[in-house]
Design goal:
Chains: A alpha/beta (481), B alpha+beta (481), C mainly alpha (107)
Largest sheet of chain A: 11 strands, mixed
Distance between the termini of chain A: 11 Å
Largest interface: A-C, 80 and 59 residues
Number of domains of chain A: 1
Strand order of the largest sheet of chain A: 1-3-2-4-6-5-10-11-9-7-8
Oligomer: heterotrimer
Structural class of chain C: mainly alpha
Radius of gyration of chain C: 23 Å
CATH topology of chain A: Amidase signature (AS) enzymes
Strand content of chain C: 5-15%
Largest sheet of chain C: 2 strands, antiparallel
Shape of chain A: globular
CATH architecture of chain A: Alpha-Beta Complex
Number of strands of chain C: 2
Helix content of chain C: 25-40%
Shape of chain C: flat
Distance between the termini of chain C: 49 Å
Helix content of chain A: 25-40%
Order of helices and strands of chain C: HHHEE
Radius of gyration of chain A: 21 Å
Strand order of the largest sheet of chain C: 1-2
Number of strands of chain A: 11
Number of helices of chain C: 3
CATH superfamily of chain A: Amidase signature (AS) domain
Chain lengths: 481, 481, 107
């Protein structure tokens, strides 16, 4: 069994038993990167030099028996919208192509304390806006299952890296599905925690009330380990909350709901089949499964594509060429800012900034943004009602399997539609996970999404693990290790 | 037709907290640029705001002291506009749910009081500082340099209702607001340091008109003097325009200190669209009853309460007002001296007149540590009992500012005790009359004014130690004889 | 995909001023960009109109910022050291005498 295929706990056991050294693992991982990056372009930067040193230090700890953390010596890929001090954080944008972070994100600080390694920074859709990584200013990332296809987005690079084993696990960020959808497209586990359980300090903001950092991993247990390491209330993030977990059953006393509106038109047969497969498995194991209707989900895309652009239009206003990043000159500072932003932002980013600006502008606030906020509250209420009836909600993660690059870029709406299943969890702040369940006729993987009530992340992970064990999805893209 | 001016004033008060409003960088007063910064106040990507408790306590204190209703469920809003000294290109402020609403401030002009209605009191953050190179004037600058030390400092914005009707009222209002913020210990109130900044909105309309005229905003008034002059100028300018049939444009005008005129600023057409929306990085702010009660219990004596107390000691409103706006040590000195002498006029005059005058002349800002309120009380008593003349008292006071002694000692030393003995004075009178026989004759023939000359001679000869009242009396008596 | 067409009143905003919006967003769009982006935005706005036509029950003052209705926690006024002067200026496109330099800013 190739070591790059092993889950974290197993690797840690090998390190402790001295059957494997962290430097050996890193060496293999780095070789995989060398072998895959040219065709996949998952990473934007690799931290080779630093890691050789760090891996040796990890070796030393396991040698002496002083290694404390499960993540000690484990190479993780980090999405390039998360600040690591002393390294570039580009958000895959021309705007920040020369920006070096002077501080660590809180999640990075925590991972450094766990003595994890960072393979490098991974490619994403520019400023996390997109569902395919095609919006990166530095070239697109390919899907390791079939390089004609996209890996999904916006955390495409992180997913491709884990898929091709150029990292053991990765961090991504999820605003409307950017962890779960690429995980689904790449046959991996992708977990978006309850809003607020993971600090956003140091994550370059797209939509503040929707963004969360989370893991993309090979197994549910790996996601559990990463979640445990990065979660916790942070005094630097006023929206972060104490991780006071709510326990709900994951055994067959748990009640399961299938979201009606996400099994109708607009969902491909393949995606529906994966859900049916999981439902059957659960029923066989004695779980009670029923259909749950959440009508306002039909408006999820409209709500999201008003709230997210509105927030991002303000979050991205700071990119102006004054204190950092790209600067294009002008006669006055206004001109300089306008020119810099024209040059520095790609098309999708401009689209969303303008849409958001419009939705907030005088005369239109009530009609657009104001309405969206009200609808969001309705959605939260509808989910609360649903979770009075069931403990877990199941749906497809994505309407379809991965698509080819260029397939969805003609009409902006087409790309947005693919977020239909994932957006509701962000709007309602709920924990949501995608686990791989099968492969389509085109040999592309698909996942199934499970959601649960706020702060039941650990129960959700437990329940997902049960399904994972039943389904036994053990496939991986060929030719990378 | 008589035109009536209507004025509203917007004031910004810098709070003297230790740290900034949304980060824990120090609030500094230094020439060294960019030394108190963090990712948040510099607007770096990924940074987040965390509110300052003390600042909220201070604004609540201010709102309570002006009788405002406190908003229990408030929030912060983003005010979106682009400017180089605004790091995020939005300012965190409050829009429709400010901390305080509908208060009032008592102001004093000479011997009468008035109430200025306050519309709202809200919390926001300050911007960085721009310096324009070249001539220092914006129009001909070649570049602009930015220092962000001030970025993020807590600012309270207070907006009056449009109820002010003269420049005099406006000045009295700012003086009162300034004193209030000093007494509450929330600001140093130094106008020259920009601790308090204000803009005025001015319009004119016919006396009997129900509608207000076109509102013009005036900026760049850096002192009370410029506030007064700018308002007077603008009222005059607008009145002339109305009488000439010229339309008044709704705009922002800049007060030119040198030319003493208001002029159009090169601003964008129409009013700015700030696209306010609730800041998703800052959850709803609940100010509980306990919190408000606790703040209320820490309320010190307010300026208007001080004035009442002062009036009760026997002072006029005008005098009480002046004292209420004096430094703490002066107020304290007055109360102590008054308590001992029961002489309000005397205490007031000696402290605000002679003492402060002499200190100014000698360039002393604070009383020497040996200087006790007892000395002033002693001096006042000595005068009351005719033991020393007013002139002698001045000498004693001056000496006390230089050396550690007592009034009695100094009077003894310098032989300043007044001669009150009738016999002794009569002797001197006779001598003076003998020496000035010609003058006596002139007085006898009707030139009464020359009595003063003789008194003067007597004072001169006795080194000012004769009771002048008695001297005059005895002179006249002797002349008659 | 038709799952979003509820009662859709098709009313494309004719007063959609792309130049004004670009100005507010401080982005200098080329003419081509203006045309394309205006078109894109019209398509998207037409779609989200279904939302604005809805009658909703939620009052404005029931809106919570945080999806989990968390309350703001105020932090103690205590100094925390952060960036050094050098770190603060480390990414400055232009600086002089410790200050960030930009072309002249008009009021």
């Amino acid at each position: 069994m190739d070591i790059a295929n092993l889950p974290i706990r197993k690797l840690n056991t090998l390190f402790n038993k001295k059957d494997l050294k962290p430097s050996e693992l890193y060496s293999k991982i780095f070789d995989n990167a060398v072998g895959s990056e040219a065709s996949l372009h998952a990473h934007l930067t690799l931290f080779e030099e630093e890691n050789i040193k760090k891996a040796k230090e990890s070796d030393g700890r396991f040698e002496k028996g002083t290694a404390q953390s499960l993540l000690d010596g484990i190479p993780l890929a980090i999405k390039d919208n998360i600040n690591i001090k002393g390294y570039k954080t580009t958000c895959s944008s021309k705007m920040l192509s020369n920006y070096t972070s002077p501080y660590d994100a809180t999640v990075i600080k925590k991972l450094k304390e766990s003595e994890a390694l960072f393979t490098g920074k991974t490619n994403l859709d520019e400023f996390a806006m997109g569902s395919s990584t095609e919006n990166s200013a530095f070239g697109l990332t390919k899907n390791p299952w079939d390089t004609d296809f996209v890996p999904g987005g916006s955390s495409g690079g992180s997913a491709a890296s884990v898929g091709a084993r150029s990292s053991i696990a990765a961090l991504g960020s999820d605003t409307g599905g950017s962890i779960r959808q690429p995980a689904s497209f790449c046959g991996l586990v992708g977990f978006k925690p309850t809003y607020g359980t993971v600090s956003r300090y140091g994550l370059i903001a797209f939509a503040s009330s929707l963004d969360q950092i989370g893991p993309i991993t090979k197994t549910v247990d790996d996601s559990r380990i990463l979640f445990s390491a990065i979660s916790g209330q942070d005094s630097r993030d006023a929206t972060s909350i104490a991780n006071d977990q709510v326990d709900i059953p994951s055994d067959k006393t748990a009640k399961i709901g299938v979201i009606k509106e996400l099994m109708e038109d607009g969902i491909s047969d393949e995606a529906r089949n994966e859900v049916s497969k999981v439902i059957e498995t659960l029923k066989t194991s004695g779980y009670e499964v029923k259909e749950i209707s959440i009508p306002i989900i039909k408006l999820a895309i409209s709500i999201y594509y008003l709230i997210a652009p509105a927030e991002c239009s303000a979050n991205l206003a700071r990119f102006d060429g004054v204190r950092y990043g790209l600067r294009i000159d002008g006669n006055t500072s206004y001109e300089m800012m306008e020119n810099t932003r024209a040059e520095g932002f790609g098309k999708e980013v401009k689209r969303r900034i303008l849409l958001g600006t419009y939705a907030l502008s005088a005369g239109y606030y009530d009609e657009y943004y104001g309405k969206a906020l009200q609808a969001r509250k309705e959605m939260i209420d509808e989910f609360t009602r649903a979770f009075n009836e069931v403990d877990y909600l199941i749906s497809p993660t994505t309407p379809t399997q991965a698509f080819k690059a260029g397939e969805k870029t003609s009409n902006p709406l087409e790309m947005y539609m693919s977020d239909l299943c994932t957006i509701p969890a962000n709007l309602a702040g709920l924990p949501a996970i995608s686990i791989p369940t099968g492969v389509t006729n085109d040999n592309l993987p698909l996942g199934v999404q499970i959601m649960s009530r706020a702060l039941s992340d650990e129960s959700l992970l437990n329940f997902s693990e049960i399904i994972e064990k039943e389904i036994q999805f053990d496939q991986q893209p060929k030719g990378w290790v | 037709m008589t035109l009536q001016p209507t004025i509203g004033i917007e004031t910004h008060i810098e709070l003297n907290t230790n740290t900034k409003m949304f980060c824990r960088c120090g609030v500094v007063d230094t020439e060294e640029p960019n030394i108190s910064l963090c990712p948040t106040c510099l607007g770096l990507p990924g940074a987040l705001p965390v509110p300052n408790k003390k600042a909220i306590e201070y604004i609540t204190l201010l709102a309570l002291s002006t009788g405002c209703e406190i908003t229990t469920k408030g929030m912060f809003h983003r005010k979106n506009y682009f400017y180089p000294d605004l790091p995020k290109n939005y300012q965190i402020s409050q829009f429709d749910l400010p901390v305080g609403l509908n208060g009032q401030l008592e102001i004093v002009i000479d011997e009468s009081t008035d109430f200025i209605q306050i519309e709202r009191v809200h919390m926001e953050e300050d911007t960085g500082k721009s310096t324009h190179s070249g001539t220092g004037r914006i129009e001909s600058a070649t570049s602009t340099a930015l220092d962000f030390n001030r970025s993020g400092v807590p600012l309270v914005e207070i907006v009056t209702k449009p109820v002010i009707t003269s420049s005099k009222q406006a000045v009295a209002y700012i003086e009162e607001l300034r004193q209030l913020s000093i007494d509450l210990n929330i600001s140093e109130g130094r106008l020259e340091k920009g601790n308090l900044r204000f803009d005025a909105n001015i319009s004119v309309a016919p006396e009997d008109s129900k509608e207000l005229g076109t509102k013009v905003e005036i900026k760049n008034m850096n002192s009370l003097r410029s506030l007064e002059r700018a308002i007077d100028y603008e009222i005059q300018r607008q009145s002339k325009a109305v009488h000439d049939g010229v339309e008044i444009i709704q705009e922002t005008r800049h007060w030119d200190e040198n030319k003493e005129v208001t002029s159009t600023m090169r601003s964008k057409e129409g009013s700015a669209d700030y696209r306010y929306f609730s800041d998703p990085d800052l959850p709803n702010m609940y100010l509980s009853k306990e919190f408000v009660d606790q703040v209320k219990s820490s309320m010190p004596q307010l300026p208007n309460e001080q004035r009442e107390e002062l009036i009760n000691t026997g002072l006029s409103l005008k005098q009480a007002n002046i004292l209420s706006k004096s430094d703490e040590w002066i107020k304290s000195l007055y109360f102590k001296v008054h308590q001992q002498t029961k002489d309000s006029e005397g205490s007031y005059n000696w402290i605000t007149g002679e003492l402060q005058g002499q200190m100014r002349k000698a360039n002393i800002e604070r009383l020497p540590e040996w200087f006790s309120h007892d000395y002033l009380s002693e001096i006042i008593d000595l005068i009351k009992n005719s033991k020393i003349s007013f002139t002698s008292a001045k000498i004693i006071l001056s000496q006390l500012l230089e050396e550690d002694s007592t009034p009695n000692e100094i009077a003894e030393q310098k032989n300043l005790f007044q001669e009150n003995d009738t016999e002794k004075i009569s002797e001197m009178v006779l001598q003076i009359l003998e020496e000035n026989q010609d003058v006596v004759d002139r007085i006898k023939s009707g030139e009464d004014k020359l009595v003063g000359f003789l008194v003067g001679q007597l004072m001169k000869q006795s080194n000012g130690s004769v009771n002048p009242g008695m001297a005059k009396e005895l002179l006249l008596k002797k002349i008659e004889d | 995909m038709n799952c979003f067409q509820t009662t859709l009143r098709i009313k494309v905003s004719k007063d959609f001023d792309i130049q004004n919006i670009a100005k507010l967003a401080s982005i200098n769009l080329s003419e081509d960009e203006q045309e394309n982006l205006a078109k894109d935005l019209s398509i998207i706005l037409e779609h989200v109109k279904a939302l604005s036509d809805l009658e909703l029950n939620t009052e404005q003052n029931e809106i919570y910022i945080h999806p989990l209705e968390k309350e703001l926690e105020l932090q103690e006024d205590e100094l925390v050291e952060s960036l050094t002067h050098e770190e603060a200026l480390s990414n400055a496109p232009e600086s002089k005498d410790g200050k960030f330099v930009v072309p002249p800013s008009m009021e």
